[in-house]
Inverse folding.
C-alpha cells in the first residue's frame, strides 16, 4: 500500500475542516432563532425571526439591524469559529494547489508554504480583531471611526480585503521557483510533444516509445 | 449649442455600442475555428486576461445591485466584496497551472471538455454541461433584462425621445451583444472586456470620489450618520446579521473558483506563467471597481437617512439616482457606459460558455463525437441562446429570477469540488464529482422552489457548497483511487 501523498494529507485536512463547518451549521439548525416577534396575519398569530434585521422604522425599502446584542450575543463563538474555519479551508486549498507529488521543489516549496502560513495567521488575527472590536462596541458603543468606519467594520473592510495580499505576494514571489518552474514547463513540453505526435501518427508514436501518453 | 445630461449619457452609450460592434468586426477575421471561438486560440496576454477575469466577475450586479444592497442592508454585502481577494487567490492557486495545462494537452474547448478529460467520464461532462446551461440561461436572462431596463431608463429621461417600449430597448442591446459575440466569439468578448474593464475602473474611481464628497466628513461623516440612525447597519454584519454575512463570505471566497465564465478565461492564457501577473492585477482592478459599490451605497443610505435626499422607490435605484443627482453629466455618461460594460462583459462570457455546452459538450456526451462544422453551429447557438434568454426575460421573469438567483451558488457547489479540488488531487473520483454536481442542483433548486428560509439567514448557496464539498471529499476518500490516463496523471504530477 502506498503512503498518502502530500495532496492526500491536504485533502484529509480539508475534509476535517469541512466536517467541523458542517457541525457548526448543524448547531444553527438546532439552536432556534432569537430574537423573534409575534405578528398577527390573516387572524393567526405567527412568530417572525428578527435575526436578519427589521424594516427600517422611517424609510420604506430600507432595513435596520435592531438590537445587536440580542441577535448576536450568544452566537459570537459560532460566528468566530465559522470565519476561522473558512480561512483555514481557503488556506488549505491554496496549499493544495502548491502540492508537488514529485516532491522536487524542496526549499522553494517550504518558502511558498511560509507565505501561506503567514497569510493564514494574518487572516485569523483579522477575524479575532473583528470579533473583539464588535464585542466591545456592543458593550460600550462606538467612540471613533478609524479609517472611516467603526473599529470592527474597519477591520472587516480593510483587513479582510487586504490580508490575502500576503498569499498573493507569496504566489508572485515563489511562482517561478515552486509553482511553475522551468522544469515544470520542460516536462510539460515533452509530454505535449508526445501527445501531438500520437495524434498525428498513432503507430509511429507507439513505435518511438510514447505509448503511455494516454491521449485519445 | 448646449448639451444636456441626457444627451451626454446617450452619446456615451452610442460610442460604447459602436466600439463593441467594431471589435466584433475585427475579431471576425481572427476567428477561424471552434477553438478560436471558444478559447480565443489560447492567445490571451496578461492585461486582456486580467480585464476579462475581473470585469466578468463584476457584473451589472456589482454596479447596480451592489450599491442597492448597501443602501438596503448597510455593510452586509461588504463581505461579498471583501471575499474577492481571497477568492481570486483560491482560483489562481488551484486552477492556473493544472487546469490550464490539461486544457492545452487535450486541446479542450470548454470547461466540461477538460472535466471529461480529467475524470475520463462522459457522465461527468454531461452533468457539468447541464449545470452550466441551467445557470447560464438564468444569468443571461437577468443580464439581458438589466440591459433593457437601463437602456429604457436612459431613453425615458431624454426629453426629445418618444416613449420607447421595453421590447425595443431589449432588441437594440441584444443586437449589439449578438453581433460581436456571434461574429468574434470569445475573442470579441475578451477584447470588449478590455474596453469595458478600462471604463469600469475609471468610472468607479471618479464616482467613489464624488460619493465621499457628497456627505460632509467623507467616510467618517457617513459612518457617524448611519451609526446614529442604526448602529448595526454600519457594524461588520450590517442589517442581515452575522451568520448571513459569514455564509456569503464562504460562498463567494471559495465559490469563485467554480464560476465557469471566470475560470474558462484562465484556460485561454497564452503562457501559463502569465498567471503570476494576472492574479495581483485582477484583484487590484476588482478592488477599485468595488469602490463604486461601497461608496455609492453608503452615501445614498446616509443621504436618505439624514433627509438630504428623498427615499428611493427601490434599492436598485441607489446608483442611477446618485448619478442623476450628484455626478457631473460627463461622469454620469461614463458610468452609464461603464454599467453597460459591466452587464455586457458578463453576458458575453455566459453566452460563450452556454454555446459551448450546447454544441460541443452535449453532443460529445450523447453522440460520443463533436458536431461537424462546430464554428457554424457555435454562431447559430449564440444567436438562439440570446433569443431564448430574451424571451424568458420578457415573458417569464419568475423563471429568470429563479435561475439567476441560484446561479452563483449552483456553479460554486457543482464546480469547486469537481474542478478546483479535482484537478489538484488525483484521488478525486468521477462518482464524487457527479455526486457533488447533482447535490448542488438538488439543494439549490429545492430550497429555491420550496421557498425554504434557512436559520439566521444562512445562504442557500453556502449550504449547497458545504454539502457538495463534504460529499466530494468523503466519497473520494472512501473509494478506491481512480486510474487516470497517463498524460493526465503526468500533468497532475507537475
Amino acid at each position: 500500500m502506498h503512503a498518502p501523498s502530500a495532496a492526500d494529507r491536504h485533502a484529509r485536512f480539508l475534509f476535517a475542516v469541512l466536517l467541523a463547518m458542517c457541525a457548526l451549521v448543524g448547531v444553527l439548525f438546532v439552536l432556534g432563532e432569537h430574537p423573534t416577534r409575534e405578528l398577527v396575519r390573516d387572524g393567526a398569530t405567527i412568530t417572525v425571526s428578527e435575526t436578519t434585521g427589521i424594516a427600517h422604522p422611517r424609510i420604506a425599502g430600507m432595513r435596520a439591524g435592531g438590537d445587536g446584542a440580542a441577535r448576536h450575543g450568544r452566537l459570537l463563538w459560532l460566528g468566530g469559529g465559522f470565519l476561522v474555519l473558512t480561512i483555514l479551508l481557503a488556506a488549505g486549498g491554496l496549499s493544495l494547489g502548491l502540492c508537488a507529488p514529485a516532491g522536487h521543489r524542496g526549499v522553494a516549496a517550504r518558502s511558498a508554504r511560509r507565505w501561506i502560513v503567514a497569510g493564514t495567521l494574518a487572516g485569523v488575527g483579522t477575524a479575532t480583531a473583528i470579533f473583539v472590536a464588535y464585542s466591545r462596541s456592543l458593550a460600550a458603543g462606538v467612540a471613533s471611526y478609524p479609517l472611516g468606519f467603526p473599529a470592527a467594520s474597519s477591520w472587516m473592510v480593510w483587513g479582510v480585503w487586504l490580508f490575502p495580499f500576503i498569499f498573493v505576494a507569496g504566489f508572485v514571489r515563489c511562482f517561478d521557483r515552486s509553482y511553475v518552474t522551468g522544469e515544470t514547463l520542460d516536462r510539460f513540453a515533452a509530454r505535449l510533444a508526445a501527445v501531438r505526435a500520437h495524434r498525428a501518427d498513432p503507430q509511429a508514436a507507439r513505435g518511438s516509445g510514447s505509448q503511455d501518453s494516454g491521449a485519445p | 449649442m448646449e448639451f444636456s445630461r441626457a444627451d451626454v449619457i446617450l452619446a456615451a452609450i452610442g460610442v460604447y455600442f459602436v466600439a463593441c460592434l467594431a471589435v466584433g468586426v475585427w475579431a471576425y477575421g481572427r476567428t477561424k475555428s471552434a477553438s478560436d471561438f471558444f478559447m480565443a486560440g489560447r492567445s490571451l496576454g496578461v492585461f486582456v486576461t486580467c480585464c476579462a477575469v475581473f470585469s466578468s466577475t463584476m457584473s451589472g450586479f456589482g454596479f447596480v445591485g451592489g450599491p442597492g444592497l448597501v443602501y438596503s442592508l448597510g455593510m452586509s454585502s461588504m463581505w461579498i466584496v471583501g471575499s474577492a481577494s481571497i477568492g481570486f487567490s483560491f482560483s489562481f492557486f488551484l486552477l492556473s497551472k493544472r487546469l490550464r495545462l490539461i486544457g492545452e494537452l487535450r486541446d479542450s474547448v470548454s470547461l466540461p471538455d477538460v472535466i471529461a478529460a480529467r475524470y475520463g467520464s462522459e457522465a461527468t461532462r454531461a452533468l457539468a454541461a447541464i449545470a452550466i446551461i441551467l445557470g447560464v440561461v438564468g444569468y443571461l436572462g437577468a443580464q439581458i433584462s438589466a440591459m433593457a431596463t437601463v437602456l429604457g431608463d436612459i431613453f425615458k429621461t431624454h426629453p426629445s425621445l418618444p416613449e420607447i417600449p421595453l421590447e425595443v430597448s431589449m432588441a437594440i442591446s441584444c443586437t449589439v451583444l449578438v453581433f460581436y459575440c456571434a461574429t468574434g466569439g470569445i475573442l470579441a468578448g475578451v477584447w470588449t472586456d478590455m474596453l469595458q474593464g478600462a471604463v469600469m475602473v475609471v468610472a468607479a474611481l471618479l464616482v467613489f470620489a464624488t460619493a465621499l464628497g457628497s456627505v460632509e466628513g467623507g467616510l467618517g461623516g457617513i459612518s457617524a450618520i448611519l451609526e446614529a440612525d442604526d448602529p448595526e447597519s454600519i457594524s461588520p454584519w450590517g442589517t442581515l446579521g452575522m451568520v448571513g454575512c459569514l455564509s456569503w463570505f464562504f460562498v463567494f471566497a471559495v465559490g469563485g473558483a467554480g464560476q465557469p465564465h471566470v475560470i474558462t478565461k484562465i484556460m485561454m492564457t497564452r503562457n501559463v506563467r502569465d498567471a503570476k501577473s494576472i492574479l495581483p492585477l485582477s484583484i487590484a482592478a476588482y478592488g477599485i471597481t468595488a469602490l463604486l459599490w461601497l461608496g455609492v451605497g453608503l452615501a445614498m443610505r446616509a443621504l436618505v437617512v439624514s433627509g438630504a435626499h428623498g427615499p428611493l422607490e427601490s434599492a436598485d435605484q441607489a446608483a442611477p439616482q446618485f448619478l442623476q443627482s450628484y455626478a457631473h453629466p460627463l461622469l454620469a455618461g461614463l458610468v452609464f457606459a461603464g454599467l453597460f460594460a459591466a452587464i455586457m462583459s458578463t453576458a458575453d462570457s455566459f453566452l460563450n460558455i452556454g454555446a459551448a455546452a450546447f454544441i460541443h459538450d452535449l453532443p460529445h456526451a450523447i453522440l460520443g463525437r463533436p458536431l461537424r462544422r462546430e464554428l457554424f453551429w457555435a454562431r447559430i447557438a449564440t444567436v438562439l441562446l440570446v433569443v431564448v434568454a430574451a424571451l424568458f426575460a420578457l415573458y417569464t421573469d419568475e423563471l429568470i429570477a429563479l435561475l439567476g438567483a441560484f446561479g452563483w451558488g449552483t456553479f460554486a457547489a457543482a464546480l469547486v469540488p469537481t474542478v478546483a479540488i479535482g484537478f489538484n488531487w488525483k484521488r478525486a473520483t468521477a462518482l464524487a464529482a457527479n455526486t457533488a454536481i447533482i447535490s448542488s442542483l438538488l439543494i439549490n433548486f429545492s430550497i429555491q422552489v420550496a421557498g425554504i428560509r434557512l436559520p439566521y439567514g444562512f445562504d442557500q448557496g453556502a449550504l449547497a457548497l458545504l454539502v457538495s464539498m463534504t460529499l466530494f471529499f468523503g466519497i473520494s476518500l472512501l473509494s478506491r483511487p481512480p486510474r487516470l490516463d497517463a498524460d493526465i496523471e503526468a500533468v497532475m504530477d507537475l
Remarks:
- The two ends of chain A are 30 Å apart (CA to CA).
